From TrEMBL:
Amino acids binding Cu cation: 179, 184, 219-220, 228, 375
Entry's EC annotation: 1.7.2.1
Gene3D superfamilies noted in UniProt: Cupredoxins - blue copper proteins
Protein name according to UniProt: Copper-containing nitrite reductase
Listed GO MF terms: copper ion binding; nitrite reductase (NO-forming) activity
Organism whose genome encodes this protein: Candidatus Azambacteria bacterium GW2011_GWA1_44_9
Transmembrane spans: 6-27, 39-59
Cofactor: Cu(+); Cu(2+)
Length: 420
């Protein structure tokens, strides 16, 4: 995992040594001294160094007080974007052996809690653990994810309107950072964040009443909020309406998220968080369920009615959620549900805001592969896609090929596997 980091450091080290050796040789060389060690040249160089210094000083920007509310940011006063202080880098490497290694960071699309059948309110309790782990964004591209329960997104939670919900949040002893939880389904300061700030090894609890149905995002809201969310700390909680949701055959849990890493997309080895890209809103990777898909995680039988709970952990992009090869017959726009809440019918693409969610439903009429995307399609190149397989017999009434006797060879350009 660190091969590439070692090569990187070595190349700087070897390069630096050779430059020093060259400088040493030149300074000792008589001709060099004769040419360059003259007052005019020395003064020019000093003036240049002075100009660089004052130029850099005059470029001081980003007053922290308008960057965000002062109580919500952790960067040093007057500092730039929240870069890692050098001390944190050494702290990271000292703690690194303790971080759990996770084979597959992606939450299981099928891990949706079963529908609630009871008709009375109860007190429901959830235990979540904030854990900082190491896992892969794609094969051989490693990242220090911050998680709830060692997965991205965190576990999907399900309660019923009227329930009292107890959240116990533990911060794993191996963590380097404070974490908390803000549930958008909570009415109260910080959505619970103010009551759940936990340092490594600590547990805090709070309770709240689920008064409004909907599908809600939860996330870590520790300063810097956007840094925690863009390390993977988000998930969904469904507050079912009292009467429940209509029965479907299959339910899936999907969340779009963003990862900001230094260097170009595809850089191998351990990749480091890039705060500048975060502030600029230019993620290196856009993912469904935490990482680039390894294998199809959703299976549907032809004719089944499917419901997907789709969230957007953000923190910068609005998702234009679409499934290539399907039409949503029903959408709960922005996750709105319950009495007097209107459903959308027959939708091709639905908007899911950063920190928002939607529910989409469809019947899989035709067998084959479905592709979930953010239809801002350049994001597919950054990983924003996932596949679902529909199994079963062909359905020629809905979809079939028309065999033709004429050949199109030589007329249509042949597409290669990249689709160019
Ligand atoms: Cu956090």
């Amino acid at each position: 995992m660190y091969d590439y980091t070692i090569y990187y450091v070595l190349s700087w080290f070897v390069g630096g040594i050779s430059l020093l050796a060259l400088a040493f040789f030149l300074v000792r060389n008589v001709t060099f001294k004769e040419i360059f060690l003259r007052p005019a040249i020395i003064i020019s160089v000093l003036v240049l160094i002075g100009a660089i210094f004052f130029g850099t000083y005059s470029y001081k920007t980003y007053a922290p007080d308008f960057a965000m509310p002062p109580f919500m940011h952790t960067m040093a006063p007057g500092g730039l974007a929240p870069y890692l202080p050098l001390a944190n880098i050494s702290k990271f490497f000292a703690s690194e052996p303790n971080f759990p290694r996770i084979e597959d960071i992606g939450a299981d699309y099928n891990a949706v809690p079963p529908p609630i059948t009871r008709t009375t309110s109860e007190t429901v309790e959830f235990n979540l653990t904030a854990t900082e782990v190491i896992s892969e964004i794609a094969p051989n591209i490693y990242f220090n994810f911050w998680t709830y329960n060692k997965q991205v997104p965190g576990p999907m939670l399900r309660v019923r309107t009227g329930d009292t919900v107890v959240i116990n949040l533990t911060n794993d002893i191996t963590s380097l950072h404070t974490h908390n939880i803000d549930l958008h389904s909570v009415n109260g300061p910080g959505g619970g964040a103010t009551l759940t700030n936990v340092v490594p090894g600590e547990t805090k609890s709070f309770k709240w009443k689920a008064v409004q149905p909907g599908i809600y995002v939860y996330h870590c809201a520790t300063a810097n909020v956007s840094t925690h969310s863009s390390h993977g700390q988000y998930g969904l909680i469904l507050v079912e309406p009292e009467e429940g949701l209509p029965k479907v055959d299959k339910e899936f849990y999907v969340m779009q998220g963003e990862l900001y890493t230094q260097g170009d997309i595809g850089r191998q080895g351990m990749t480091v968080f890039d705060a500048k890209k975060l502030i600029d809103g230019n993620p290196t990777y856009v993912t469904f369920n935490g990482r680039i898909e390894k294998e199809t995680g959703m299976e549907i039988n032809r004719g089944e009615r499917v419901r997907m709970y789709v969230g957007n952990g953000g923190v910068n992009l609005v998702s234009s959620f679409h499934i290539i090869g399907e039409i949503f017959d029903t959408v709960y726009p922005e996750g709105a549900m319950g009495k007097n809440s209107a459903l959308f019918k027959n939708v091709q693409t639905t908007i899911i805001p950063a920190g928002g969610a939607a529910v989409v439903e469809f019947v899989a009429e035709v067998p084959g592969k479905l592709v979930l995307v953010d239809h801002a399609l350049a994001r597919m190149n950054k990983g924003a896609w996932a596949t679902a397989i529909v199994k079963g017999d062909e359905n020629p009434e809905i979809f079939s090929e028309i065999k033709s006797n004429t050949t199109t060879a030589g007329i249509m350009p042949t597409m290669n596997h990249h689709g160019y």
